[in-house]
UniProtKB/TrEMBL annotation:
Keywords: Disulfide bond, Repeat. It comes from Ilyodon furcidens (goldbreast splitfin). The keyword Repeat applies. Residues 42-137, 140-242, 248-346 form the Fibronectin type-III domain. Transmembrane segments: none annotated. This is Fibronectin type-III domain-containing protein.
Length: 346
């Protein structure tokens, strides 16, 4: 057996034979026909028929080839665009479903053709460049906790986001919250405030501001992509107390007598916590009795949280008093409500 180089081009052919020499003469073989063949390669890339989150269905598109047939085997060779590995599958039909792909990932898919004989597999044809669709997020986000709680602020954090959760490179993260707010001064009716905020996708923390003090705030995270969304369970946080809002001046009602005044008021519209006490101050400012020195001394009275009334006694008839009322929580006193009340002339 001998190996030798033949200088020939595709399609050229010739006849070769072996000659054996000996002292008694020569022996020759029959002619062997040698024809140069080029392995086949598709001219066009495969065609995409349908894409899913984890598969691509393609048509091989091998009607036109360069090189020589006949084609006895077809193979699919594919790889992710950001990867160096390749996989090759033998294909038995003109369409093929490439399985077990990653969602929202770009792939290069080529076709290999083989003719009979050793070395009959040609180079890969032009690649089809196609992307799988997004898949629904794997699950809802977890680990929602508060790192800082203030009267009007909640600093929140949660687990870091990754492709293993989003299953898509295009996604949106929403932080949705709700809390109840009283309507009117009676406090009997509540309105629910609801809002969803878009959060920077590259972060795992957010600060909610301008919240009402001493309020239960219910928060959930929503992870959404073009294929669906996952909502986390709702977590409840309570903002801290703050100083109370002012008592509405129009809620102050009074009944003056000649030496007494009966005063009533309502709880602040925004208590901002648990009212612990009320403080009432009063001072005479003018009088129709010239024998009374004005302004008089300022006096202060404390009332329990459930006492929204007070009876002033020992007052001077025909005298105007400046009365102030303010509420207190654990954080301190709120704004003062002022009114002027004049006792009856005796």
């Amino acid at each position: 057996m001998a190996t030798f180089q033949v200088e020939a081009q595709r399609g050229e052919q010739d006849h070769y034979r072996c000659v054996t020499l000996s002292p008694r003469g020569a022996a020759v073989s029959n002619f062997g026909e040698l024809i140069v063949r080029v392995p086949p390669t598709p001219i066009a890339p495969p065609q995409l028929l349908r894409a899913g989150p984890t598969y691509l269905i393609i048509q091989l598109n091998t009607n036109s080839i360069v090189g020589d047939g006949p084609v006895i085997r077809r193979e699919i060779q594919y790889r992710a665009s950001q990867s160096t590995w390749k996989e090759t599958h033998v294909v038995g039909s003109l369409t093929y479903k490439v399985w077990h792909l990653e969602p929202d990932t770009e792939y290069y898919i080529s076709v290999l053709l083989t003719r009979p004989g050793e070395g009959g597999t040609g180079a890969p044809g032009p690649p089809l460049v196609s992307r799988t669709k997004c898949a629904e997020p794997m699950r809802a986000l977890r680990g929602l906790t508060a790192t800082e709680i203030q009267p009007r602020l909640l600093a929140l954090q949660w687990e870091p986001l990754g492709y293993n959760l989003t299953r898509c490179h295009t996604y949106t993260l929403y932080l949705c919250y709700r809390y109840s707010m009283p309507t009117g001064t009676s406090g009997g009716n509540n309105a629910t405030v609801r809002e969803c905020l878009s959060v920077d996708r590259n972060t795992s923390h957010f600060t909610l501001r301008d919240l009402p003090p001493f309020r239960a705030v219910h928060i959930r995270l929503v992870l959404a992509n073009p294929e669906g969304k996952k909502e986390s369970r709702e977590v409840t946080f309570q903002t801290e107390e703050d100083i109370p809002g002012g008592i509405a001046p129009e809620s102050l009602t009074f009944t003056p007598l000649d030496d007494m005044i009966f005063l009533k008021w309502e709880e602040p519209v925004e208590p901002n916590g648990l009212i612990t006490q009320y403080e009432i101050s009063y001072q005479s400012t003018e009088s129709s009795d010239p024998g009374i020195n004005v302004p008089g001394p300022r006096r202060t009275v404390s009332k329990l949280r459930n006492e929204t009334y007070h009876m002033f006694s020992g007052l001077h008839p025909g005298t105007t008093y400046l009365v102030s009322v303010r509420a207190r929580t654990a954080k301190g006193f709120g704004q003062t409500a002022l009114t002027e009340i004049t006792t009856n002339i005796s």
